[in-house]
């Protein structure tokens, strides 16, 4: 079985309490309708569909159906670095220096695999069906194998997967965190050779692709000399690959950019060919109005990571203003070493709340948050057949089980997973027409063995 090919099993999802489409505004709610899935696609959505001979029927009576979450920015290796004491009260810069960077060289392929499996399992059980991982465990004398194993594990879990191939091209003496890694950065040629290899082996540019490769240097100004940014952009566009990186996560970053280059960060990347509908940035917490206008005008997108930004004390990204300006907005958990949760349900709940706390009750709606976390994510990744529930779209969807005490008393169950947040159980999850969560469990996963591997991994990564 090739896990990237769609399942040809026909599935009928009957009688859900509510179905959300992933679209914004008046198009968000599909009401009480049944859904038929065949050959990896949604075949029909209508009330009272009749089961076909040989069809699997899922009774969704106590469930609401959402499009699967599209998590557009993760660092899966960080799943073995949650709540490291030396970083728990630190800001971004000190946290980078204390938590991930000193351990980069200690990540063997085995540890990277355990971390990825832990993260993928948690994501699936929170309703994620597509993940883009910003993977930067690369250095001159390391192995490129860790990128390959992410594709292998995503295929084993049945997750739609985008590898954002990160890494540094300078030793970043400017950055107090990276300078502690004692790692030698790759050369541009090494990075590009691996990107071309990954593209040839895994990349599928189709609208319902299960595997994509993205060019994603870790952070402009810190992880590569400015003159290499246009070269990477040219290479990415020549290969037909999208581009991703961190930007404007903290005021310190903005100040650095201003002092060093005399420009705001978005102006700086614009000058180096890094804006466009094929580019999206993680964070964008600190933006001037002129930068939002430039991003919107160019079609550049954002991975909004509100929990990580709050956890590190970085601020609250102006996601509602970015959306209002027309930017593609997506949601992401970021690495769980600065989140402590890899749940997109938790992220959506916090995203719904935090903008209302800061800017008033009109700042966000549940429908808009679902749109950001599903169709918005698919848009920044260029996966046009993903993120919305409609006939012809990829069959990526989640059945949240609301048959639990904490959901008794709800007048509107459609909003319950986002409004109430975790814990909420995913009863079934389907990716590409294939059932990847069955009755709250991941078929074929030895959970106890994975948890033992995780405990061992933490022991190996202790200070
Ligand atoms: Zn990140």
TrEMBL record:
Gene3D superfamilies: Metal-dependent hydrolases, Urease, subunit C, domain 1
Molecular function terms from GO: pterin deaminase activity
Record key words, sorted: Hydrolase
Organism superkingdom: Bacteria
UniProt xrefs under Pfam families: Amidohydro_1
Enzyme class name: hydrolase
EC numbers, comma separated: 3.5.4.11
Boundaries of every Amidohydrolase-related domain copy: 64-436
NCBIfam families recorded: PRK12393.1 (NF009059)
Family statement drawn from the similarity comment of this UniProt entry: Belongs to the metallo-dependent hydrolases superfamily. ATZ/TRZ family.
The protein's name in its UniProt record: Isoxanthopterin deaminase
Originating organism: Paraburkholderia caffeinitolerans
